[in-house]
Design brief:
alpha+beta; Metal Binding Protein, Guanine Nucleotide Exchange Factor, Chain A; six-stranded antiparallel β-sheet; 11 strands; globular
Length: about 190
């Protein structure tokens, strides 16, 4: 077999294998849903950033296979598998437009551009969430050190981590993966 024939056969074969690997038929993912949804209290915000009150809404719960179908690959890896995107590669690390950052999985308002700052880390950083009841924090020891993970309260999407080296007035730095967010510019009246 000459080299051209080898490459003519192997390149489509590798592409087909990659497509199969990312397909819905991954052996370690199932259609099992983690449990029944229960009501959570979420602060709702209009697209102009105005608070619309606190409402009890059902959790958004889907199987990993369903999330994989609905989300872009990197967003799935970040939000459902708790992967951290490479710094300086996300869409929002240097964004300066005014608007709301919503959860890419369920649309819950998470952060406002009004609290965004340049942390020099390569990830979008905020000194506080738009509403404390919209996010959850938990202990994360996945890399051998104690960190505080941040997730969306409504759908449990992994967002990033919070550190205590941020600016005033809170002293916090919510270091968030761009792949976990959807930006909605403030609607003009």
């Amino acid at each position: 077999m000459d080299r051209r024939l080898f490459f003519a056969i192997s390149v489509p074969g590798v592409a087909g294998l990659a497509a199969w690997f990312y397909s819905d038929y991954l052996p370690w993912e199932s259609d099992e849903i983690p449990g029944p949804p229960h009501a959570v209290s979420i602060a709702e915000f209009s697209d102009s950033g105005d608070p619309e009150g606190i409402h009890d809404v059902d959790q958004v719960i889907k199987s990993n296979r369903e999330w994989r179908r609905l989300l872009p690959y990197e967003s799935f890896r970040v939000t459902r598998k708790s992967v951290t995107e490479i710094p300086y590669t996300g869409a929002f690390w240097k964004a300066h437009d005014e608007g709301l950052y919503r959860c890419i999985c369920c649309g819950t308002a998470l952060f406002s551009s009004k609290t965004k700052f340049d942390s020099g880390t390569g990830w979008p950083s905020f000194w506080e969430p738009v509403a404390s009841q919209n996010v959850l924090t938990s202990s994360d020891r996945s890399i051998g050190i104690e960190r505080t993970a941040v997730s969306c309260r409504r759908c449990d999407a992994h967002l990033g981590h919070v550190f205590d080296d941020g600016p005033d007035p809170t002293g916090l730095r919510y270091c968030i993966n761009s792949a976990s967010l959807r930006f909605v510019p403030f609607a003009r009246a």
